[in-house]
Amino acid sequence: DVKVTQSSRYLVKRTGEKVFLECVQDMDHENMFWYRQDPGLGLRLIYFSYDVKMKEKGDIPEGYSVSREKKERFSLILESASTNQTSMYLCASSTQGAYGYTFGSGTRLTVV
Amino acid sequence: EDQVTQSPEALRLQEGESSSLNCSYTVSGLRGLFWYRQDPGKGPEFLFTLYSAGEEKEKERLKATLTKKESFLHITAPKPEDSATYLCAVRTVKAAGNKLTFGGGTRVLVKP
Fold first, then answer.
1. Mind listing the pLDDT tens digit for each residue in B40-67?
2. Would the CB atoms of B97 and A106 count as touching at under 8 Å?
3. Of chain B residues 3-42, which have a CB less than 8 A from chain A?
4. Which residues have CB under 8 Å from A38's CB, separation 6+?
């Protein structure tokens, strides 16, 4: 069964901490994505990557960075966590072409 | 700018009461419209992809249809286990890296 695995289901971090969210896929997909999901705002794209070491900004990249050193792994980094980054973070992957995503289970991050 | 709007925001149904969810879109060149189901606290799960107007897809009690401006997700004789948030997303011809734009979702509650 194909999978996108996010390393943590729940995280609580303090304001100002550097936070790493990890995502691994086992489908050899070229594309990987990080979204955040908030009530009333839906899913918003933070960053995506279409190849190793390649990254593109999404709609809300401010306060975030990403790393993709290997094809199967895509990391989201919160350089200095703030309370407005409290959210559900969803990782997804897809192959090339007009295909849908496979999502991970999500990481619910709370910044206090 | 590509826009995806889902309606209604929430839908309460009695078990067996059929209904339809709407996803209207304004995009420059559609390359695919996607439906997902999301259970509370989990990542979205892929349901259907539609590529061209007139296309229909079915899965159990769900049927998705597509026109040039909107898509419908019909739920026939729903059961309580159909309760979830249903998300619609589009991919356009100019979207880099298979990027999808999501609507806000419709929360469906089916009461026994």
1. 989 999 999 999 999 999 999 999 999 9
2. no
3. 31-32, 34, 36, 41-42
4. A44, A87, A88
